[in-house]
Amino acid sequence: MNKFALLGTSLVLCAGAATAADYQVETLADGLSSPWSLAFLPDGGMLVTERSGQLRLIDVAGQLRAEPVAGVPEAFVNGQSGLMEVALAPDFAESGELFLSYSCGTREANHTCLAAATFNGETLENAHEIFRVQPAKKGSAHYGGRIAFLPDNTLLLTLGDGFDYREQAQNTANHLGSIVRLNRDGSAPEDNPFVGQADAMPELYSIGHRNVQGILVDDAGRVFSHEHGPRGGDEINLIEAGKNYGWPKITYGIDYNGSQISPYTELPGLEQPLVYWDPSIAPSGMTLYQGELFPEWQGSLLVSALAGKEVRRVELNGDTAGEQESLFTELGQRFRDVRTGPDGAVYLLTDSPSGQLLRVVPAN
Amino acid sequence: MKVMTVLRIVFLYLLAVLVATLLGSLVQTQFNLAALQALDVPVDASTRLHSSLHDLRFFSPFLALMVAACLLLALPLAEALGRIFKPWRWLLYFLAGFVGIWAACALANYLLPMPTFIAATRETPGLLSLMAAVGLGSALFGRLTKPKARRGLRVLG
């Protein structure tokens, strides 16, 4: 059953002394099947992806439609795979165009895929695949899947290394473990950094990533991303075209079984993270808070975390990271995504087979 | 069975687990370093030593649990088969650990969230090397528990 907060669902008041802001948390929708991503429609509605393959519409009245949006490409759903990001084109208000990332294929041979479609307010039209990671990989882990738009109208799609293929993150002849930059038709822009290099994939924008599940572009055009590291190696990076972020040649983490992945945390020619987390928090989504409801959080990165069961606020001081603060820990939830709404509220998706969409507003 | 006999078997079992784990941990380290070297990461002798010690300290406890569990099941089976196929006793003990750790890895990969729990086993050479390491541990147990050959006049058999 799905409810809207103002219709009488749970209201949690939080005024913890450990946080700089007092807030309350409203439940906008529940019963979502592993919700993964959230997009705000110009009319005040929202689109939510469920990893199990559905796109759900929350209409302008705040009602979660019972039937999923029709026309969504079929996703390969297993383990970490499924339908991932929904991202509205910058000109969505005029074009109705949106993008969906998802895993496609089979357990033995699958890819991260990207589709474009037009949303007419009720259903998707003309959904068609515009990009798929090459080569196919086996297993259902580390797909990346987040999308951000650059000021030049190209888009960035984050990818993962497929877990068992970590060394391929250093191989420019494939897409594994990279961030790719695409035109809106899925083609590679001619000014991409690896264009013209022998055997290199022209879509590559940066390489040496493990599993990037947070990305944003700020008003100055800076690209921030975060990625799941191994045990103790989660990172926030400031992404620049053509740079190598090191995985797995350098890392601050070790393998889940305790074994070493690399003896090095630094090597020449490899970028250092702005932040790394040891122990890991498992960062899953990110927003740059620029709303007016929480002045204390202005200009901070808000990073949703799965294992950490929190949203980590990271202050930015120019191109460096400053103080950090753990938010919403009292909810005890794994958070899959965090967004800043048009109203300045913070929106959260909880990671659960029966997940929730939460809205955080000031207590007063 | 005498208490001393039981204690001896337990000691030899632990010794087999220890040897298999140490060898297996070294296999994991060397295959990982080889993969890094293939990416032009510099690995000198000192780095190799430190990496090996790191894995012996932090990885071997996990591997030891897997080895201990698989040998607990595999060694009695090898002993039973060894009494039937006496000339092949050493081979049966080797295969007990060799196949046993493969089954343990397969079970771990099935039960745990990550596709492959031990990175060295992603590729066949690494998997076979780890299997051989544990096979050597179990073969050692078979060698040390081998009944002494009876001397003297053989009337029958």
How would you sum up this structure, described in words?
The complex is a heterodimer of chains A (364) and B (157). Chain A has a domain at 1-31. Chain A has one helix and 24 strands. Chain A has one helix at 92-95, and strands at 11-14, 23-32, 35-40, 46-50, 55-58, 83-88, 97-105, 110-119, 124-132, 147-149, 155-158, 178-182, 204-207, 212-217, 223-227, 234-239, 275-277, 283-288, 301-305, 310-317, 320-327, 335-340, 346-350, 355-362. In chain A, strands 1-2-24-23-22 form a five-stranded antiparallel beta sheet, with no helix packed on it. A four-stranded antiparallel beta sheet of chain A has the order 6-7-8-9. In chain A, a hairpin with a 5-residue loop joins strand 10 and strand 11 (155-158). The longest helix of chain A is centred in the N-terminal third of the chain and has 4 residues, at 92-95. By secondary structure, chain B is an all-alpha fold. Chain B has one domain (3-144). The model of chain B has no long low-confidence stretch (mean pLDDT 93). Chain A binds chain B through residues 79, 138-141, 163-164, 166-167, 170, 248-249, 254-264, 267, and chain B through 25, 28-29, 32-33, 35-36, 38-39, 41, 43, 47, 50-51, 54-55, 58-59, 61-63, 112-119, 122.
Strand order of the largest sheet of chain A: 1-2-24-23-22
Mean pLDDT of chain B: 93
Oligomer: heterodimer
Average pLDDT number of chain A: 94
Order of helices and strands of chain A: EEEEEEHEEEEEEEEEEEEEEEEEE
Q: How many helices of chain B?
A: 5
Shape of chain B: elongated
Low-confidence stretches of chain B: none
N→C terminal distance of chain B: 26 Å
Radius of gyration of chain B: 18 Å
Largest sheet of chain B: none
Number of helices of chain A: 1
